[in-house]
């Protein structure tokens, strides 16, 4: 027997229900994982609320780490007892144990705990594709980054700074300024208090940003466009405040021939070889100390609803991990 978080319909945190289920025998190409840590991501919240449709009734969660407990037919790359982690689907990581396709498993470095892996893999993969593929960040790149005190923001800021970028962070409250500076930001602006376009001009000698990474969405989108230099890139990669309103193509022209993209993690790691390559980059960055796993709080799996409520209430200050 094992435990699992299940939801029959979308809604508030209370729809996340703990249930006891039977362990399953892995089929060909599958393993049974005994999970030790489960990463919580804002995408989980969006799916639970119905903003991103998922199949219901069903499980939830896209990231976990633990040990291989049983092998299906044809599985030769892993052995019982191997420490592994994964990111992306199939859904169902909010569980004490689960079936998982072997081709999506990643072997954990000996120096990385399951808890740290679950706190950094999904978020690290997101940061990796954003700064290496969406906009290749190099020495001298000026980055404007929202949510820099959060889990993804901390990783992205440290990594971009390591590459030689000048990161200007945006935080939602003054208490987060120190965390943003510790992550490498050369300047920090507070949303709702500072004038962002003027602030970015002051921080860059009038040049503004080469790229804006905006995970907030509707509330910040228009302001983000005004923070870009001519031919700069607007990267809208999240929507915690809701989906941005449609933008007319003429607007991009009038604001300096801007570029606009809406990338997602799935398009960057669905291919198994690409997934493994990006994951190696994340693990290597952790080993080098370029990025640092930082768990804000650990919750029991049974308290998943509380974890979601804390995220939506703006209480979290970093990565959240569930433990079975």
Write the layout of secondary structure elements.
Blueprint: E1 2-7, E2 17-21, E3 30-40, H1 42-49, E4 58-59, E5 63-71, E6 83-87, E7 97-101, E8 106-107, H2 114-134, E9 142-146, H3 151-162, E10 166-171, H4 177-182, E11 187-190, H5 196-204, E12 209-214, H6 221-225, E13 228-236, H7 249-254, E14 259-261, H8 266-269, H9 272-287, E15 295-300, H10 304-312, E16 319-323
Parallel strand pairs: 9-10, 9-12, 10-11, 12-13, 13-14, 15-16
Antiparallel strand pairs: 1-2, 1-4, 3-5, 3-7, 3-16, 5-6, 6-8
Helix pairs in contact: 2-3, 2-9
Radius of gyration: 20 Å
**SSE ordering:** EEEHEEEEEHEHEHEHEHEHEHHEHE
> Could you name the CATH class of the largest domain?
Alpha Beta
Task: Work out the helicity level.
Answer: 25-40%
Structural class: alpha/beta
Outline = globular
User: What's the number of extended β-strand segments?
Assistant: 16
Total number of domains: 2
Looking at the overall shape, the CATH architecture of the largest domain is Alpha-Beta Complex
Query: In what range is the share of β-strand residues?
Result: 25-35%
Query: Helical segment tally?
Result: 10
Tell me which oligomeric state these chains represent: single chain
Largest sheet: 7 strands, mixed
The first-to-last residue Cα distance is 12 Å
Average pLDDT over all residues: 96
